[in-house]
Write a structure and sequence with these properties.
Number of helices: 15
CATH class of the largest domain: Alpha Beta
Strand order of the largest sheet: 6-5-9-8-7
CATH architecture of the largest domain: 2-Layer Sandwich
Radius of gyration: 60 Å
Largest sheet: 5 strands, antiparallel
CATH topology of the largest domain: Alpha-Beta Plaits
Distance between the termini: 96 Å
Structural class: alpha+beta
C-alpha cells in the first residue's frame, strides 16, 4: 500500500492544485475574452455613430440622391463584413425608388431623379425578431452568427430615430426610420483569445509539474519511507509477532504514530497472552463438560464438537461434522423448526428421546446487528436419570404408599378439574365416600399390620369394580373417596351398592370386612359435594353400617 502512497498523494495534491490553477486561468481567460469583446464592441459602436452622422449630414444637406453612393461606400469599409442602412421592413435603403417616388408625389414635382436601376435586397430576413425588438424599444440590439466554415460573426443593429427635419421626406408616424446594420468577423478576436488560452495552459502545465516534483521529493523523504517501516512492522504484528518496537522518527506527527504503535504492540502482547490463557480454560471446560456442544460458523459448517456430544449422540466428530447441525438427531425438519422458532422468541430447551437416552436440547442461532448469521449452536444434556427420578417423585407425590391409590392432595386437584369439565359440558358428576366399618377394632385386636392388610385388600377389591374414568383415592385413615364423572346420583348409588357387596364378601386372614357408603352428585362447589357425601356416610353408619345412603349438596 505505502509503496504507491506517494503517487496517490501526488495525484490528489496535483488534482487539487491543477483544479485551482485551471479555475484561475479560466477566470482570467474569460475576463480577458469579455474585455476583448467589449473593446471590439466599443470600436464598432464608434463606426456605427460615424455612419449615422454621415447619413444625417447627407440627408440634412439635401443630397439624398447621393444615398446610393453612400450605401456603396459602406460596403467598402475595411474589416467589415456587412454595413448597411436598413428600412423598418428589413429591406436595404437607397437600393430602389420607393422613398424617391413617395417624396416626389408628396411635393408635387420631381425633387429627386429616380434611379435608372433598382437592386432591392432583404438584409435581415433571418433576424426579424431582432429588428422588431429594435423598432419597438428603440434600443441597440446585438447577436452572433456563424458562417458555414464555423467563423463567428458579430452584428449590431442601431436604430435611426426620426427628427423634425426628417418628416419632410418620411411619415411623421415613424419614430424609428430604420436601423444601421453592422456585421464584423470575430475570427481575429477568437484567434487572439485562443492564443492567450494556449499560453496560459502551457504556463499552467509548467507550474503544475514543478509543484508535483517538489511535493514528490518531500513526500518520499518525509512520509513514504517512515510509513514503509511502520507497514513492515504491522505486517510482522499481523503474523503474531507482538514484540515489534519502532524507533522514534524526528517528525512530531510520525513520532506520535510510532509511540502509539509501540504502546499498541505492548497491549496486544498482554491481551494475546490473556486470550491464550482464557482459550486454554475454555478448551478445558468444553472438552471436560458433561453436556454435548456442537457449533457451526456463518456458512453452517460444523466447527466444534466436544467428546460429550459424540458420546450422547453415538456418532463420531467426523460424522457430526459431515452431516451438519440439521442431522444431529436424524430429523432435519425438527431441528430447522426449532432454530426458526428460536429466532422470534427466547430459545427454550426441548426434550427428545434419542440413542436410548432422554436428552434436553437447546438450539440457537446468533445474528449480528444487521441480521447476518454468525453461527448456530446446540447444547445437549442427558436427563435420563433426572426424568426417571422426576417421574418417580411425581408418582410418589400423588399416591398413597400403602395402597398405591391416589392421595388426598391429588384428589383435591382432580375434583376441581372434573367439576370444571362437568360445568363446561353440562354433564353429571358423582362423589362416593366410604370407610371400613369398625376399623379401629381391627387395629386394636389384631394389630396395625393386620389393619394395613385389610385396607390394601379393600382397595384392590374396589379398584376391580371401577371404570377406567373413575378416580379412586385414599382420603385418610380407613376412609376412601371415588370421583365418578358422567353419572348421576342414582347410577352412582347402584355402583356403590355393588362395591359394598363386593367388600362384604372379603375374607382377610379369616376376618370379615364391611364398609359404609355415602353418595352425592352435582356440579356445584367441591366443598358442598364433599359435605353432602360425608353426611350420607354418617347416616349409613348411624343406620347400622354396611349400607349405602345418598344426600344432595345444600
Amino acid at each position: 500500500m505505502f509503496r504507491h502512497i506517494d503517487l496517490k498523494v501526488l495525484v490528489v495534491i496535483g488534482t487539487v492544485v491543477g483544479i485551482g490553477l485551471a479555475s484561475l486561468v479560466g477566470f482570467y481567460s474569460e475576463r480577458e475574452e469579455r474585455d476583448v469583446l467589449a473593446q471590439n464592441k466599443r470600436t464598432l459602436l464608434k463606426l456605427v455613430d460615424s455612419t449615422r452622422q454621415g447619413l444625417k449630414t447627407l440627408m440634412l444637406s439635401g443630397y439624398g440622391d447621393v444615398g446610393p453612393v453612400f450605401a456603396k461606400s459602406l460596403d467598402e469599409v475595411p474589416g467589415v463584413v456587412d454595413l448597411a442602412v436598413v428600412r423598418p421592413d428589413g429591406s436595404e435603403a437607397f437600393a430602389d425608388n420607393r422613398t424617391i417616388d413617395r417624396v416626389n408625389q408628396a411635393v408635387g414635382y420631381e425633387m429627386f431623379y429616380p434611379r435608372e436601376q433598382e437592386n432591392p435586397r432583404e438584409r435581415l430576413q433571418n433576424h426579424r425578431n431582432q429588428l422588431r425588438e429594435v423598432l419597438s424599444s428603440g434600443k441597440l440590439a446585438e447577436y452572433y452568427d456563424e458562417r458555414g466554415d464555423g467563423e463567428r460573426l458579430y452584428t449590431l443593429l442601431s436604430p435611426i430615430f426620426s427628427e423634425p427635419v426628417c418628416q419632410e421626406c418620411h411619415p411623421a408616424a415613424e419614430q424609428v426610420l430604420g436601423v444601421i446594420k453592422l456585421t464584423t468577423s470575430l475570427a481575429r478576436v477568437d484567434a487572439d483569445i485562443a492564443l492567450s488560452r494556449l499560453q496560459s495552459l502551457l504556463l499552467l502545465a509548467v507550474i503544475l509539474l514543478l509543484i508535483v516534483a517538489v511535493i514528490r521529493l518531500f513526500v518520499v523523504k518525509n512520509l513514504v519511507r517512515p510509513l514503509g517501516g511502520i507497514t513492515q512492522a504491522l505486517r510482522q504484528v499481523s503474523q503474531g509477532d507482538f514484540l515489534q518496537q519502532l524507533s522514534r522518527p524526528p517528525h512530531a506527527e510520525l513520532s506520535m504514530m510510532v509511540d502509539s504503535f509501540n504502546q499498541m504492540t505492548q497491549r496486544l502482547a498482554g491481551i494475546y497472552s490473556g486470550l491464550q490463557a482464557e482459550r486454554n480454560k475454555l478448551t478445558t471446560i468444553i472438552l471436560g463438560a458433561r453436556e454435548g456442544m456442537v457449533a457451526t460458523d456463518e456458512r453452517g459448517q460444523v466447527v466444534l464438537v466436544n467428546p460429550a456430544a459424540e458420546q450422547l449422540l453415538g456418532k463420531s466428530a467426523a460424522q457430526i461434522s459431515e452431516g451438519g447441525l440439521s442431522t444431529l438427531f436424524d430429523d432435519p425438519e425438527w431441528i430447522d423448526g426449532r432454530l426458526a422458532a428460536a429466532r422470534s422468541q427466547v430459545p427454550e430447551a426441548a426434550v427428545i428421546e434419542y440413542n436410548r437416552r432422554t436428552l434436553s436440547v437447546q438450539l440457537a442461532t446468533i445474528w449480528d446487528d444487521i441480521g447476518r448469521t454468525l453461527g448456530s449452536a446446540a447444547l445437549i444434556r442427558d436427563i435420563t436419570e433426572e426424568t426417571v427420578l422426576q417421574a418417580r417423585l411425581e408418582h410418589e407425590s400423588r399416591t398413597d404408599p400403602l395402597t398405591g391409590l391416589y392421595n388426598r392432595r391429588y384428589f383435591d386437584q382432580q375434583l376441581e378439574q372434573e367439576l370444571r369439565l362437568a360445568r363446561r359440558y353440562q354433564r353429571d358428576l358423582a362423589l362416593v365416600i366410604f370407610d371400613v366399618d369398625h376399623f379401629k377394632q381391627f387395629n386394636d385386636r389384631h394389630g396395625h399390620d393386620q389393619g394395613d392388610r385389610i385396607l390394601c385388600e379393600v382397595a384392590a377389591r374396589v379398584r376391580e369394580g371401577l371404570r377406567s374414568v373413575d378416580v379412586f383415592c385414599r382420603y385418610g385413615g380407613e376412609e376412601f373417596v371415588i370421583i365418578m364423572p358422567g353419572i348421576g346420583i342414582v347410577e352412582a348409588k347402584a355402583g356403590a351398592e355393588q362395591l359394598r357387596a363386593s367388600i362384604a364378601g372379603l375374607d382377610v386372614d379369616g376376618l370379615s370386612v364391611t364398609a359404609s357408603f355415602g353418595v352425592s352428585a352435582g356440579q356445584g362447589e367441591a366443598r358442598a359435594l364433599l359435605e353432602a357425601a360425608d353426611r350420607a356416610l354418617y347416616q349409613a353408619k348411624g343406620e347400622g353400617r354396611n349400607r349405602v345412603f345418598t344426600a344432595n349438596p345444600e
